[in-house]
Amino acid sequence: MSDEGVSLKTLSPRALAWQRRGRAAAAAWREFSSSKSGLVGLGVLVLAVLLALLAPVLSNEDGLDVTKATGGRMRPPDGNFWLGTDVDGRSILLLTWWGTRVSLLIGISAALLSVVIGTVIGIIAAHYGRWVSAVLLRIVDFFLVLPSLVLAIALSTVLEPGIGTIIVAIGLTSWPSAARLVRAQTLTVEARPYIERSRALGGGNLHIIVKHVLPAVLPLVFVNATLAVGNAIVAESTLAFLGLGDPFQTSWGGILHNATVDSAALAGAWWYLLPPGVAIGVVVLAFTLCGRALETVLNPRLREPR
Amino acid sequence: MTSTSSTTTPLLELRGLTVRYGGRSGLLAVDGVDLSLRAGETLGLAGESGCGKSTLAMSVLRLLPKSAQIEGEILLDGEDITQMSFGRLRTVRWASASVVFQGAMHALNPVKRIGEQIAEPIRLHGTVPAGHVKSRVRELLEQVELPVARADAYPHELSGGQKQRVMIAMALACEPRLVIADEPTTALDVIVQAQVLALLSRLVADHGIGLIMISHDLSVLGATCARLAVMYAGKLVEEGPSRQVIGEPKHEHTKALAAAFPTIGDPSSRYAPATSSELGLPGAPEPVAEGVEPLLRTDNLRVTFTGRGQTTEAVKGVDLEVYPGEIVALVGQSGSGKTTLARTILGLQKPTSGQVLFEGKALPHSARALRAYRRKVQLVLQDPTSALNPRHTVYEAIAEGLRIHKLPGDERELVAQALEAAELRPPERFMTVLPHELSGGQRQRVVIAGALALAPTLLVADEPVASLDASVRGEILALLLRLRASLGLAALVITHDLGLAWNIADRVAVMYKGELVEVGTVAEVLRDPKHEYTKQLLAALPDGTALPAGEVTA
Amino acid sequence: MPSPRRGGGTARYLLTKLGGAVISLFMVVVLGFILFRVMPGDPVKTMTRGHPVTNEQLAILEHRYGLDKPKIAQFWDYLVKLLHGDFGDSYQYSRPVGDMILEKLWPTVLLVGTGTILAVALGLWLGTRAAWQRNSVFDKASTGIALAFWSMPTFWLGMILLTAAGGLFPSGGMVYPDTPPDFLSQALDILHHLVLPVITLVAVVYAQYQLVMRSSLLEEMDADYLTTARAKGLRDDLVRRRHAVPNALLPTVTLVFLHLGMVVAGAITVEAVFSWPGLGQMTYNAIGVPDLPVLQGTFIVLAAAVLVMNLIADVLYRFLDPRVRAV
Predict the structure, then answer these.
(1) Which of A275, B16, B184, C159 measures 20 to 30 Å from C185, CA to CA?
(2) Which domains does chain C have, with CATH numbers?
(3) Reduced to 3 states, what is the DSSP secondary structure of residue C144?
(4) Chains near C, with 3+ CB pairs < 8 A?
(5) What is the ipTM, given to two decimal places?
(6) CA distances from C6 to B23, B117, B249, B542, C16 (A)
(7) Residue C4's pLDDT is what?
(8) Which domains are seen in chain A, by residue range?
(9) In terms of pTM, does the model score above 0.90?
(10) Best residue in B88, B89, B108, B156 for a mutation probing chain C (most C CBs within 10 Å)
(11) Are B183 and B42 contacting, i.e. CB atoms less than 8 angstroms apart?
């Protein structure tokens, strides 16, 4: 019990609610920061985002232009080109750096799209019972088992190539797992007696969803979104590798696509393959580690016994 | 069976047993307990949740989690358990002492047939030759009065009582000399509980087994055990013959435990929670005047559920009345339809036929009118811990109803009044607190305050004290009685506990398989039951909690 | 509590599941039509994207593929043909797509099957060990490694393996053309070709099985029935093997089948990298054209295969978990 009752007279109910949220956030941060791997992941992500944002300030975009490339053809790393050059003589370092922008943009947007779709469908399927739920569940189960990459390939083949298409293709194919998760969580929350109490107090559907279900589901959604970004980045690189990316933008998958077209693997040009792949691995791992640490904050059962 | 040990060595002896969780400075769960049990003796261990009674029981077979540190001696047949090698400990487990666990639902492996689970320790300890294991399992099932064919069943296919019988058969499998029963009947209905207790007592007596039984319910222990020990905050506070401990409790805590299970028929325990409290009962309850319109009436109410091709009639034509300012207890066992009836009264469940009338008017169907109705009829749920959103402060929990109904007036003022009415004082101290920072009793008061904030005329309380500890139970019941006296609040209290009805209700309605089998004043129904089922319920109460009809004149 | 009637329940359960699967299959067929016939707006334009064509050529193409009819009529044609196993003709090779799929089916089955079995075995074994030795060096290291592999794009790992170990193993294909036609030589050669693709597939896929097995075992660790088992005097390893693992295995089994779609996705890129002559490589080759009938055919076949596997999983699960059997 706290002694904040004294200050109560000066605080409005809204301010009280925000104070409570602030305390909850601080507690969550304390729990998160006790996870070493989570902190490392967060650090990597902050760095990646900064690099992506600062690329136009710190480097020269001209280096991406094939016609203005200054390096030799597929040259190994040297003093000028720390990570070597691609088939057109562009710096692999510069390409990988700029690739961060597109890969993060697509990864985050696609993950958001999929999580938003999943949350809406998940809550509706759980809250409204009977046939609404039955129909939605049928659809969710269908998309859940459908090989999502095959569907994404199909979508990005028939739509105009571009960043928007890739975001839509990934977002539209990866939402079912979020929907399942949100549905399960909503069902657990709605089985709690405080929902019954809220109904008995006179609360309607909207009141229950907004005041009780959403606040309980959102942290889970946030965790899911964090993990989904990693998956989306891998999916983006896969689509780009298959030649379905935006040919006018530099992404990590796109570099690897070029490397395949130029037979870099057979030519032994490891500097062409390693940097973009390592970048994908590190950023995806960082998102995964962050997501897992957040999961532990939410679910005390996963915590290590002290 | 004859006892093989000498009469001088006790079967089990605890000397200065101390159990602590999480290091030296950690939580002290058991604090210097001395206790002894001779072969064939029965001992009841009573106490509220968290008093350390289960920790003590689990320490006997060293089944505590790794974080627990044990000090002192645990002598089983003179041999110290705490010093045993792991191999020796494994041979002692189940063969010398076995356990009937709390909640048989979870204590049985869900994916193994029960026959296999009973046979497992027999094979492991070589109790009988390998060829005879099957017949031994059959014999055990017969002993616990289960059909032998049930050996092929999985746990989920058995009822709660049957599962507990399986646990007992399992405990007896290796012919142990000591059985520890940890809340063996807590989740069971009164009638099933009586059967299981009788079975356990009989088997223990037949085989000369020593029994330690753990429960929060003094009457259950009194019915089964010769001696009683009461624990409080890790310490043993009282020990003696059962009759003496229950009849003349000495320690403050034992008194509270004993009071929680009133003797039905004893006039001194009528309205006891309020009359024995120092706050007292402001004005004795007045009998309902003749000719007053009932506040709430159900008219031939029926609720039928259909699912998976089956129809279940949960409520079969119920006529029930609640008058203004009256407390009615709706008594029934789980599955009797009493909760469905309550939900229908609150408009949370649509009746299949019949209707609910409030103040003479039928329950409305439109969402808006239903909301207005719900202002007047409020719900108090069984478990206050889950009835409050863990993310909302007490202030928000109480203001929720005010905000839904957009009640006029200063919100903070109204919240403070509600807290005051629920005797949470001073109100300011509680407003910013989250539910998990409160005790169980305080949480239930918050739930009640949330209901009171809307100034209802009827409170529907579903097992309002079932999840609370004995000492808190009285406080909450007293609060309900005082609210009735000061605000004229009527209440429909749903319970499985006849003692609770005797404690606070004016009238009782007994529900059985969806029907009201008996309705009348508390004195009529509980002292002179007419219906066969009511008689069974009263007969199933552990000895000493119901006086035979007519023995006492009120 | 009414005792469950097992016989009637099982038949009903199977019928429900079968009905669901049939609806799902129909949805796949509809989706295949929408994706490749409706969404492109003009398949012929997509087909000829980047090629100079005259309007007459377009009209001829449209007529040849039946694209000048109304959509409903097109759907009916498509449905009738599908039921006869006719997936249309490839734009690229002018051959029936059905025949092409049949040819490429078994290499994919070999790759996905071997990969799944190895990944599941590895994942379950590591997950079980990690859960027992919670917070040990083994637990932390194996979980870390699994997560690292899981974070890598499958195709990239394949390319790196190809660069690093290219000398030891064939760089692509399934058999050398000059291998003697006898069974043993052929089998050994296929095995030789299979090593790198399978390692790649397993490395990326096994992590999820390990993590799921680990967490579901940890969930079971606190279960009361394990205390019962320990109280009975069972050794710790017996408590785990007899009581904990069978319970923890159940959720994992469902996941194995649920994630089959992801293995298939991994296989597509692995086949592309290692030129493994299966459905994935066929898809890869069709993307650039784009050869819509081939993409449509592989989409329908792969989706249907995963759906059927999940139907099998549902049935299997019913016999594994007595609790589901009673419902």
Answers:
(1) C159
(2) 2-38+69-325 (1.10.3720.10)
(3) helix
(4) A, B
(5) 0.85
(6) 51, 22, 54, 39, 15
(7) 41
(8) 94-306 (1.10.3720.10)
(9) no
(10) B156
(11) no
